[in-house]
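Repro case for the chain-ordering regression, as requested:
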Amino acid sequence: MNNNRRKVLKWVGLSGLGGLITWKANAQAIINNECLSTDDILGPFYVPNAPFIDQLAPDGAPGTPIVITGTVYANDCETIIPQAVVDVWHANDGGGYEDTHYRGRVNTQVNGTYSFQSIFPGKYLNGASFRPRHFHYKVSFDDVELTTQIYFQGDTSIPSDPWASSPSATDRIIPVMEDENGVLHGVADIYLDVDPLIINSTLKMDRGRSQIIKIFPNPLQTSGQIELFLAKSGHTHLQVFDLSGKKVMADMVNKVLPQGEHLLELQSNSRLGVKLTAGIYILQMRVDHQIIDAMRFIIS
Ligand SMILES: [Fe+2]
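-- result from build under test --
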């Protein structure tokens, strides 16, 4: 019996602990820089475009109330991600999925945290055995999306469930504690495979303004991509400068582009015969001869 399983035995019935616990499932993994949350099956009951609500169970729904909080982090294990979307759906107290209830989306706040209230998900039969209680999650930011499930320590249905008993699910089996009002509390942090460097550029996205959205990967080795947004069609001119202000790559792009998002290649070895060596560079974007934006990138 490992430590997790031992802790299980006192998971329920604890009271007077002041509600929220602070818990980070994979503290050791963070030290090892291997924090990324693992995926799990989608299951057949996902419905896209759930409403943005943080009370998932309908008023008066039977079951034990539960509050889940957490923080969504980037792949460096510590940068928080504001405005990520946490899409949650789960079974009702009787183990059934409903089309309109027990599902909703929440955004992470400026400090990367999210929370929602519902009732403790019920169990349902999968073949001959019950699936353990679980919340289904889809967590997304920018073009990264993780589909996964959150389980609960002490659930006797975990060992017979092929997904919850997988070693990859260990960090997603969370403890819950009951407060003096009979409400369960759990913390489920999510570590998304999002590069911290793109978070600020994605968040600053303003559809009224032409801009460089991101350069990725960054650092890059020999090639990468530039994502641009043009609020309106215009003659777009991209040039690269070194940190001393010397132009090192002219006319990377020099043409009229239509309104919208554009994905362009960035090669350290350009077709124009220019080779960028390892270093720090500035990509400058002009539209209709005006400097619109600039972004730093690194060639490693
Ligand atoms: Fe399910």
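Ordering looks correct now. Residues 43, 91, 134, 136 surround fe (ii) ion (CB under 6 Å).
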